[in-house]
């Protein structure tokens, strides 16, 4: 077994006095109480707002209620963006991560399935929807309903079938979000197992395993932002950039979603106190600052941004910042704490 607490002691001796009070157990408790539970609950509230807005659109179709539904979509999507990297516990049960957001959609397989549902003679109920492909159940499908080809019908009575599908998706998202909130609120559930590791647990048997899981989801989340959200649409070699490979390009939520991803990752790192070493904390802060500064320089929707060399350069700087963050969290922090966080990319595979 790794000599974990010896590593923590060595870290404490070299860290600033103010940081010496942060123990591994406190990091785990702070992660749950200061970030995970509040942000999951926020997502659940935004999902309820989305459901209400889509239901209002269906009962009172108009340009105004369509605009309100689109705004609610953006609020719920970015609320999920702040927590979607938490791939442990409730989010990994019942295929919830893919049901909420099926991405990347290689070869537009999911899009074709969504279009097939819209072309069908009957609108699926919530119960029927949950039995269908994950690609037609979540945010990707709802984006096409609200922003894709034919969305203008939603402002008219003629759009009832399309709106009915959108309502079922919104209800499904809200139902999953509520299950996530319940799972993290359960006094005997994932929160207890993560913050009070026990040899009898099947997942977190000691503090080392719990911290490895926590730091692992952060580092993997950073990797996912870079490899599935940014790199696919950036220009490569002589090829042109492709905005159609960007998540949520139709709704112009590509950059807001990236900003939400970075914000969520940063909040967990900072609110948990997982980086106690002052020098390492400064490097992590600098990398997050550079990521935010890069996002600030992308001022247009993704299709226009990718036609501007300055904004392409900003996205390149964002990639570099995520590379630095993944190294700092996945390698330097893990090594400092005596942890082993497995990565395909970090291993060079």
Task: Describe this protein with a few key phrases.
mainly alpha, globular, 349 residues
Topology of helices and strands:
Layout: H1 4-14, H2 24-59, H3 63-81, H4 96-100, H5 109-119, H6 126-129, H7 139-147, H8 160-185, H9 190-195, H10 207-230, H11 254-272, H12 278-296, H13 302-305, H14 309-336
What features would you describe in this structure?
The chain has 349 residues and is an all-alpha fold. It folds into 2 domains: 4-26 and 193-336, no CATH class; 38-188, M75 peptidase, HXXE motif (A middle domain of Talin 1, Up-down Bundle), CATH 1.20.1420. 63% of the residues lie in helices and 0% in strands. The chain has 14 helices and no strands. Helix 2 crosses helix 10, helix 3 (63-81) packs antiparallel against helix 7 (139-147) and helix 5 (109-119) packs across helix 7 (139-147). The chain starts with a helix and ends in a 13-residue tail after the last helix. Residues 1-21 and 343-349 have low confidence and may be disordered.
Concise structural overview:
With about 350 residues, the chain is mainly alpha-helical. It is built from 14 helices and no strands.
Proportion of residues in extended strands:
under 5%
SS-based class: mainly alpha
Q: Helix and strand string, N-terminal first?
A: HHHHHHHHHHHHHH
Distance between the termini: 25 Å
Integer average pLDDT: 92
Report the radius of gyration as a whole number of Å.
21 Å
Judging from the principal axes of the Cα atoms, what is the shape?
globular
How many structural units, i.e. domains? 2
Largest sheet: none
- β-strand number: 0
Helical proportion, percent range: 55-70%
Query: What count of helical segments does DSSP give?
Result: 14
Low-confidence segments, given as residue ranges, are 1-21, 343-349
